[in-house]
Design brief:
By secondary structure, the chain is α+β, with helices and mostly antiparallel strands. It has a domain of about 60 residues. It has eight helices and five strands. It starts with about 20 loop residues before the first strand and ends in a 6-residue tail after the last helix.
């Protein structure tokens, strides 16, 4: 941007302007309000529709993110377990000063524990004069995905009513379903007793796209392989 103003202001804040479909250039008021009501403003200004399709989409994203975090944790614990089991046969100096090299020699790849895969949506304000700016970053992590799912559930007017309050697909509900199903896949019956590192996910027996609801009776535990195979089908 070229400044041809007579007064030749420096307008330092103009350099902070970023163009991206995950950045909304807003007024100072909107930026401030987004900080106090992030999920509401995320939906309003980033075109997240308040319908069953959006809810189903973000429940799937939450499920995938939880699987990624569980997978990273399982890999790290498995690596530490193996290193611990052979520690007595490794000289102290190697363990102390060459642990990373030893880990590579044993065939372990470096585990990326970053959360770079989690998208961030930003509200950015830069004054017309370029002398002031502010921003609000909303990271769509597991915590905020839970908030988003709760928010969508509260604002959606369901065409199909159910008795009692509708259960929400939150992390807490997922754990309850796994406990109920004894941490076993309801399709192949494989459980964490058979495979300690098994990734278990929560599935809608009748998918939301086919009129199913996020209720206790319509949820089941599936291993990640059976869940990917099932897709939007209804299992007999």
């Amino acid at each position: 941007m070229i400044d041809n103003s007579v007064y030749n202001f420096q307008r330092r804040e103009w350099s902070k302007l970023i163009q991206s479909n995950q950045i909304h250039h807003s007024s100072a008021t909107v930026c401030k309000n987004a900080s106090s009501q992030p999920i509401k403003y995320l939906c309003k200004y980033f075109d997240i529709e308040n319908n069953e399709e959006s809810l189903s989409k973000f429940e799937k994203v939450l499920n995938d993110f939880i699987s990624v975090e569980q997978g990273k944790d399982l890999i790290i614990r498995e690596r530490e377990s193996i290193l611990s089991s052979i520690s007595k046969s490794i000289p102290f100096l190697i363990k102390q000063f060459s642990k990373n090299k030893l880990t590579r020699k044993l065939g372990f790849e470096r585990v990326d524990i970053s959360d770079a895969y989690i998208p961030t949506f930003t509200f950015q304000y830069v004054s017309a004069g370029g002398n002031s700016s502010s921003r609000c970053d909303i990271k769509l992590n597991i915590e905020n995905l839970n908030h988003l799912i709760n928010y969508l559930n509260d604002v959606i007017k369901w065409a199909k009513s159910i008795a009692g309050q509708r259960a929400l697909m939150t992390s807490q509900l997922r754990e309850k379903i796994k406990q109920r199903d004894n941490y076993k896949c309801c399709s192949c019956c494989l459980g964490i007793e058979d495979e300690p590192n098994l990734l278990l996910e929560i599935d809608h027996k009748i998918p939301l796209s086919k009129g199913g609801m996020t209720t206790y009776d319509n949820l089941q535990t599936l291993c990640w392989k059976c869940n990917r195979t099932k897709g939007a089908r209804i299992l007999d």
